[in-house]
Write a structure and sequence with these properties.
This protein is mainly α. It folds into 2 domains: 1-68; 69-131, no CATH class. 84% of the residues lie in helices and 0% in strands. It has helices spanning 3-36, 44-66, 70-97, 100-103, 110-130. The longest helix is centred in the first third of the chain and has 34 residues, at 3-36. The protein starts with a helix and ends with a helix.
């Protein structure tokens, strides 16, 4: 409906903003883990700069080495990696949020733990089936 020019530009904009969103999310979650669990502190501007540079430079290296057509393969590969790591992230999150020593009064209630572990087991089973 929009034509090739507009559709391509809108998709490119959505892809860039999505990438920036995930990069910022990773930056903030990394900050929480580094500061809260590892007691490792960086200046916020330096942490953001490093995270952005790693994301952008790695994409540029792939484009330079393999050509502009490789960006589709890079996008698909990144999604495969993300889907494979999902069970590890979900299980770690459940272990942290179910630990009363770490969470205190905010620990998951029993019904939520049960439901969350059921969903996590479905995710692990689906990922195993995909492999």
């Amino acid at each position: 409906m929009l034509g090739v020019g507009y559709a391509s530009a809108i998709f490119a904009f959505a892809l860039v903003t999505s990438g920036q969103n995930s990069t910022w999310t990773a930056t903030l979650s990394g900050q929480i883990v580094m500061e809260g669990f590892l007691n490792f502190r960086l200046q916020p501007w330096l942490r953001r700069l490093l995270n952005q540079l790693i994301a952008i430079v790695s994409a540029l290296i792939v484009i330079i080495l393999f050509g502009e057509g490789s960006t589709t393969n890079l996008l698909v590969f990144s999604q495969v990696i993300l889907t494979l790591q999902l069970p590890f992230a979900v299980i770690a999150l459940l272990m942290f949020t179910s630990n009363r020593n770490l969470m205190g009064e905010f620990v998951n209630p029993f019904w939520l733990k049960t439901l969350a572990w059921l969903v996590a087991s479905i995710i692990v089973e689906l990922k195993s089936w995909l492999l």
